[in-house]
Amino acid sequence: MESVPVRCPVCRRDHAYITPVYPCPCGAPTAPHVQRGAPAEPITHRTWNDDWVTVRCTGCGRHDQWPHPELCCPCGTVLRIPVRPLTAHTPPPPGPSHIPLPRTASHPRPAFRPMTIRTARDAVGAAALYLSWLGYRQVVQARERPSSRIDIRAAGLVAQVDSLTTATVLRDVECLWLNALNASVAGVFFSLAGYAPDARQRADGLALPLFVMDLTGTPQPVNSPADELISTGA
Asked: What are phi and psi of 154, to 5 degrees?
């Protein structure tokens, strides 16, 4: 990506900013279009909506929400980099339908043996057991839940387990996706109470597998990316 000159309005320091590139679900590299010459604005307080920007993939035409470009100046000021808004005459294409893939694992998996869930810790253990059954290696559970809320890590994967009695909300799904994106790994979400409609819709757009678990400890897929993960395995 080409660098863009950015001046901090607080200390007047000049920077060469390069916009980070993220992979679209179609696989094409995607990045927000920075407004060259537009002044950067210091971030004095955050709102969830301001932290996201709509970006159109040049490969498939998909419109998606991506992290708004930011730059941290050595003077301590965090700057929000202006981006070019999408034009009104480029509506997003209809969302592609997901068709579960046939199982392509080299060896059929044995039947999954669940573990009964009685506590929140049991829910994490059941999810870890399920990920191992899917074929993920080096599955490790966090002893204490970190601030990132990542409960399970494995080779090429991070997972979150929501053991609350209320439906998982949109922000939780997006936070997991961002954690996975920053670590360049896949993400999987497990929930005991299901998902809010907007959370499920967002996960579909991000190709993030969602599972629900009952107290028997048996995860069930609730979207097409989860169906595909079961079919193909890790």
From this structure: -145, 175
